[in-house]
Amino acid sequence: LGELLRDAGYDVRAANSGAIALRYALLQPQPSLILLDIMMPEMDGHEVLRQLKEGALTRNIPVVFLTALDDPHSLARGLSEGAADYIPKPIQPEVVLARVATQLEVYRAREWLRNQNAFLEAEVDRRLAEARRIQDEAERTEAKLNHQRELILSSAAEGIFGMDADGVINFANPAAEALLGYDPGGLAGRSDRELFHDQDADSGLRQGDRLPTHGGNGRGMAIRSREEVFRRKDGTSITLEFTSTPVFEEGGVAGAVVTLQDISERKR
Q: Which of 32, 99, 85, 28 is nearest to 60 (CA)?
C-alpha cells in the first residue's frame, strides 16, 4: 500500500501499531489522510479512530478504514464513529488511488472553508473592536464638547436659551434665568409665550403669530438684534434685545436658539 501511494506521488508515513499511529498523527507535518486497518493487535482500528476523534489536533483528519470484513453492521459502526470511507481488501490499486484522491480533495476543501471562516471571524472581531473604539472615542469627544458647551453657556454674559419647534424651552443658561427672574432650572419646560409681555392682552402674554419667536422656531426664520419687552417671572417687564437662530434637523425646523442682552442701561 505504501509503495502504491509513494509511486503516485504521496508522502507516506507507515505505523505498525495503533499506538505508533496515534503518535505519528501528531508529528509535523500532520497527515492529510489516515488509512487505518480495523484488525490490529492490542488496539484495533475502532479504538484508534475514537482517540483520533477525541484529540483537538487530530479530530479533523479524515480516516479511511481498510478491512476485509464485509459485515454491513461492522461497516455501519465505523461510519457512525466518524470514518470517512472504506477501502475493501484485497486492495485494488485503482480503488485505493481514486478514494484517496477524493478524500484529499474533500479535506482540502474543508480546510479552505475552515481557514476562510477563521479569517472572516477574525475580521469581524477586528471590525467590531474598531467600531467600539471609534464609538468610545466619539462618546468621549461628545462628552468633552458637551462639557465645553456647558462651560460656555454658564460663563456667557448674554442670556441664552433653546426651544423646540413648539416653543418649549429645553435649556437655558444662568444669565437668561437671571435676566428673566427665574431660579436655576426654572425656565426649562416653559413655553416661549410666557416670556413676552403684551400690554394690550388681558393676560399680559403674547399669543400665536404675535409671538416674536414664532417665525424663528416655527418657520425657520432668523431674527437679528430685535428689541422686545419681555415678561419676568414676577410679571414685571424688561426690555431686551434678542437674536433667534433656527435649528434644522433632517431638513426640518427643530427649534431655535435665542440670545438675550439687557439694553436697559443703553436705553437710559
A: 32
The answer, yes or no, to whether residue 215 has pLDDT greater than 70, is: no
Q: How confident is the model at residue 208 (pLDDT cuts 50, 70, 90)?
A: low
- Cβ density class 10-30: b for 16+ within 10 Å, e for less: eeeeebeebeebbeebeeeee
The answer to whether 187 and 206 are in contact (CB under 8 A) is no
Q: Where are the alpha helices (DSSP H) in the chain?
A: 2-7, 18-24, 45-54, 72-81, 93-155, 174-179, 214-219, 264-267
Residue type (1 letter), 1: L
The 10s digit of each residue's pLDDT in 74-87 is 778 888 888 988 88
For the chain, the distance separating the N- and C-terminal CA atoms, rounded to the nearest angstrom, is 114
Cβ pair 195, 258 in contact under 8 A: no
Q: Report how far residue 84's alpha carbon sits from residue 76's, in angstroms, rounded to the nearest whole number.
A: 11
Taking the CB of residue 55, how many other CB atoms lie within 10 A of it?
13
Q: What percentage of the chain reaches a pLDDT higher than 90?
A: 42
* Residue 62 backbone phi and psi in degrees, to 5: -65, 140
3-state helix, strand, coil in the chain (%, to 5): 45, 25, 35
**Calpha distance 236→12 (Å, rounded):** 102
pTM above 0.70, yes or no: no
Residue 121 CA to residue 114 CA, distance in Å, equals 10
Half-sphere exposure of 135 (CA within 13 A, CB side): 6
Question: Is 153's pLDDT higher than 80?
Answer: no
Residue 261: which of 153, 159, 180, 172 has the closest Cα? 159
Distance CA 186, CA 204 (A): 20
Residue 43 DSSP code: S
